[in-house]
Amino acid sequence: TPEAPGVVLGLDRGGSCVGMIYHLAERERIEAVRVLYDREMQQHVYVPRMLSARLADGRGVQALTFVANRSSSAYQRLADEEIVRRMNQCRGQRGLNREYLLNTWQSLESHAVRDDMMRRLGRLVLAATPGCAVPPGLGQDGTLAPGRGKDREVSEADATLGGERSFDAVS
After folding, report:
1. Are 107 and 86 in contact (CB under 8 A)?
2. Which of 11, 53, 69, 143 is spaced 20 to 30 A from 44 at the CA atom?
């Protein structure tokens, strides 16, 4: 809400990131992109961009991404302490802000994507929230629980964004 803005994870200009690319059949693509626009573009905190990406097998592809909109009034660079405070106090349309962070962290880990910032913030949120449930598949330290691994093969990709990742506050 405008009175208590939560935090979203966003790609920002510069650098690169490791992530996943979904290849959609043409018949599914239009509907999938419409759903993404409906969900991600309502507050104008992102700018859609087609970026060059490199798949794990070395092939280059173009990928639709949503990059942080630095001209948005919601764009902010926040200290870890403020991110953790907001994560533990805010709720969005789809649930608690901390669940968003912890579930994203778990999903990345389950696909063998290691993100030091995500791990650090996840651990801070867990430490600041007594009784907070660790997402399924993660140990208390944020690593995959024994016996957990990738459920399916994914294509990892490096996408050059021209900036670093950011956490953006949105209302």
Report:
1. no
2. 53
